[in-house]
């Protein structure tokens, strides 16, 4: 069964997101843990959580994915911004434990001309400061397109961060198809080779989720502009190969395409029709 969902608004609560996911044919979803451009987080509603957990159990949901706000930059040149990142992630991970055994994704950040080595150290330091042995949430580093001074444009950069995390079993990777294609990994013509490269450098046991997006820009553009499935430079055949790849097909896929709910419903139906496993 294809594990598929999209990005949903958390404003109405978890149970509502679960019901919306089911209404469009999904069995998982992604949500922002708080205002994506700020710091405010919605109060936890334990009644809502209880209803959501019951819904998940009754409908055989896959793991869901919490997404950190874009304002979180663990490797900023500004000390206060780095402190903010630690505080936000610490709070987010505590809140994620209300829905245990799920996933939490964040953008590694931009080193802002400090250099990749310093950026990687700051990111690793943050993870070592916030991860706890008792947590059930797996924290995922997202692969990035490489615009500006982003960390995470290569598998090697992500591996270096992972190598420096003390509780390594609590961390993994979310592969964004638009980002890796824009970063110069040719998942259209050389998917097997890229998957093998990921396994050799990071290890497929660390790959926990996929952001399934087409790209508005050409291969290697380092732009990061998502496109609807089949309408970009990755194309429908490329997307079909990704969801059916034997090493990827059982992972949860999260759509972040430029769509409203009905558009996501159409993409989920399309992808289910292309899924061969």
Write up what this structure looks like.
This protein has 277 residues and is α/β, with parallel strands linked by helices. Helices cover 39% and strands 13% of the residues. The protein has helices spanning 14-23, 46-58, 79-96, 116-130, 155-163, 177-183, 191-201, 235-244, 261-274, and strands spanning 4-6, 30-32, 65-67, 103-106, 138-142, 171-176, 207-212, 214-215, 226-227, 253-255. The strands form two sheets. An eight-stranded parallel β-sheet has the order 1-10-7-6-5-4-3-2. α4 links the parallel β4 and β5 (138-142). The radius of gyration is 18 Å and the shape is globular.
Architecture blueprint of SSEs:
Blueprint: E1 4-6, H1 14-23, E2 30-32, H2 46-58, E3 65-67, H3 79-96, E4 103-106, H4 116-130, E5 138-142, H5 155-163, E6 171-176, H6 177-183, H7 191-201, E7 207-212, E8 214-215, E9 226-227, H8 235-244, E10 253-255, H9 261-274
Parallel strand pairs: 1-10, 2-3, 3-4, 4-5, 5-6, 6-7, 7-10
Antiparallel strand pairs: 8-9
